[in-house]
Write a structure and sequence with these properties.
The protein has three helices and no strands. With 88 residues, it is mainly alpha-helical.
Length: 88
């Protein structure tokens, strides 16, 4: 953590900063705050593919039988097929 990043709590670690704000109300310190500019780059970690309705229903049924989500089962099966394809 860089020096001076927590000017209100005077804490030296993120854990201590969290502890400070667990016990204090920002409204009590509002006059000490200042506006900042920040940029957030959001990138999806998932890519969606269309799946036929009946195929999706069948997949959901098998996933339920196995006690996993459809998402997990699709990723598992795709990884297995990719591993097979790359091995040949």
């Amino acid at each position: 953590m860089k020096e001076g990043k927590s000017s209100i709590s005077k804490a030296k670690s993120y854990i201590k900063i969290g502890g400070f704000w667990d016990n204090h109300d920002l409204a009590d310190y509002w006059v000490q705050t200042k506006a900042v500019q920040l940029t957030v780059a959001l990138e999806s970690e998932a890519i969606y593919y269309g799946v036929e309705k009946q195929l999706s229903k069948n997949l959901a049924g098998i996933a339920k039988q196995r006690g996993v989500s459809s998402h997990t089962l699709v990723n598992l099966w795709l990884q297995q097929k990719l591993d097979e394809a790359m091995a040949t």
